[in-house]
Amino acid sequence: MNDAMLWFGRAAGVVGLLLCAVAVVTRFAGQYFIGGYQVGSMLQGGTAAMIAGCLAFLWVLSGRFDVKR
Q: Where are the domains of the chain?
């Protein structure tokens, strides 16, 4: 399960980073829409994906340091 969460975190982080980068470059080019989607919505989606990746990494890290009593 930890391996799956680790890979999910990596994938979500990369997808989020790419979405944010596309949104920023498009906005700097003076466009407000990409294929019917607003650039601001893409930026929010990318941010949400990166946050999901961070939460997945946190889940994996918190499981590694469980102290069994």
A: 2-64
